Each structure stands twice: as structure tokens, then as C-alpha cells.
């Protein structure tokens, strides 16, 4: 649908938009807003033109750029899903841009993994755990993490980290871990609280392509003026930018963007709020029928492709004890599991401390530990398949999962 003001084309999740803003701001009312007092309305969009407009975001015209890949990753698992303490998104951007031909996935970006990525000519590394977590004050060769960042820049390899965004997302790391127990009912342990529909401070992420007159963040702020809008990213070279806008200011700012930049507003979606019931931290699993602990252990070993696990049996449990309710968190999940596990009888996570295990056992909960990254790494192959499907329209694009990435701990 083409809005009758300049060349603005809006593709948005209408059901979400109407849910948040109520009946007043339907897609038609937005169209009317932009079209009012416009005497010279554009002719109807032909099917080919409409397809071409949408193709700007999803098609394969032109090379597969870093911006395209990052945009897709951010739409798949929006960065606002992250935990407050996390560091996610594009962490390393090479100074010289090039076509992305090889995307390399790893759970941890270690020196052996980086060498493997260089050997396969990776243009981009998706590292589940962020190699830059705390602020770096320098990039030298004195620490292995700093050396890795320097080598990535030297070899023009971009680095992106999704971390807790993938944990929270529907079909992400937590859901993959929970699939070990299928068939079962699976739901998040902690779900984000949606805002009230009348909340005027709900923020929307607006992405703009083909923006003219775009020079820098400072220039953008000058053109758009003050207000509550927050600039998320700008790319003057590719004429793209994104920003967040409150629902109260959204109609006014959309009009201003179209007049100032004459670009295509490619997407409008919720920025701060989550309304998908399948999103959340951790997973609570209710089995179809009670199952013995020893059989659940076998399922986990098979799913994670490991031969050994650590087990802390509750004082009232044995390997033959039947379990129906399980709570799990990929990685390190003690804080979530111990505080919000409900009536779970079994915990599954990567690691817990000695005293956290005792706390769980005294709550009559048995704990299975599989080592931190073993509860995460298997999801990389699931994500690799998704990316292969998405980028299949760019011939020659290769998605590689690291062979050398492994958990530092093993049992001897």
C-alpha cells in the first residue's frame, strides 16, 4: 500500500500497531494522515512497483552487505530483548566494507576458533557469547580478547553477538534446549510485562531506507529537532537510518521524516515491548506423562550429544523417580531457576555453584548440569539452517558452523 505523501511506503505489523494505539490509528488512518491536504495524489501502485518497493528490504538485488545481514539478525532477534547487563549486536565493523560471502557461527570466539574462521575466509563471525563484554580501554596484544579484536579488524572480519536475545526469542536457544523433552508443553519461566494500550510512552522502532540529505547523527538531530526520539543507527553511505519514537509522537515524526529525507520507511515495529507469549527467560516444561529421571538423563545426553552429565539428586529422589515438571535455562541459570521455578521437580542448566545446588536439593529439586556452553552450542546448527534459507537468494553465500568451538571443561 502506498501512502500519498512523497515516496513513503510503510510496511508494518498492523495487528501490533492497532493493539498498541487502539482503533484510532489504523493503517487507513495513517494513510489518511499522510494524504490529507495533498491535492496531487500519486496514482495507484502497480503490482510490479509494489513488489519492487518491498524488494528493497527483502530481495537479492545487489550484493549481500554487512548492513543487510545485521538488519536480518536484528529483526530475527531484536536487540531490545537482551538482558540489561548484556552487550549484543554488531561489535566489530571493519573499516573497509565488502560483500558478505561466508558467515561463520561459533559459541565462543577463542583464538583457535578465529584461526578456523580466517582459514575459511569468513567475512563475518556470529559469536553467541560477546567477545567484547566489558568496556575495552585499549586494543593491544597483551590479552587474548584484545588480540582477537585486533585480528578481526586486520582481516576485515565483522563480529556480531546475539547472546541473550537468542535465549529470549521464540524458537531460540531456550526452546532448542527444551526440545530435548518433546512431546511436552513449553512456556517461558519469566515473560516480559506488556505495556498498557493507553501508554503514550510505548516506543516504536522506525527503519528508513533511501534517505536523502543524511550526513551524520548530529545532522539528523538538527533536522528532526528535539523530542523523545532516539537515533539507533545511521549509515549515510547506504542512505539508511533507524530511530525509536514514542506512540504519542509517531504520526508527527513520520510526517517529518518523509518531508525531510524523502526516504522509504521500510518497517515500524515495537521497540521496547514484547507481546509474543512465547518470548521470555528460561523455559518451564510439562511432560505429557511422568518420566523417570534416568530416562530424562538419556534424553538430554542424546540431545546435547554428550556422553556424561553432572547430577545432583534431591534428597527424596532416586534415578527411578518419576518427574513431570522441568525448569531449564541455557548457560548459567541458577538465579532464574531458584527464584522463579514454580513447582519444578528437575532443573536443567549448564552450571550452578555448590551452594546453589544445595539450595535446589533442599527444595526437593534434582539438578542436571551439562557444562555452560553445551546447553547452548547445539542451537548454532539450527540457526545456520535458518540463515542458509534466508540468504539462499545470494548465490555463493556460505554459512559455516565452527568445528573447533568447544566447552573448556570435560570429564576425564
From TrEMBL:
One MF term in the entry's GO annotations: metal ion binding
Segments passing through the bilayer: none
Record keyword Signal present: yes
Matching Pfam families: DUF34_NIF3
Alphabetized InterPro entries for the sequence: DUF34/NIF3, DUF34/NIF3_bac, DUF34/NIF3_sf
Signal sequence coordinates: 1-22
Keywords: Metal-binding, Signal
Keyword Cytoplasm appears in the UniProt entry: no
Gene3D superfamilies: NIF3 (NGG1p interacting factor 3)-like
GO cellular component: mitochondrion
Binding site for a divalent metal cation: 129, 167, 372, 376
Top-level division of the source organism's lineage: Eukaryota
Family: Belongs to the GTP cyclohydrolase I type 2/NIF3 family.
Name of this chain's protein: NIF3-like protein 1
Species of the source: Bemisia tabaci (Sweetpotato whitefly)
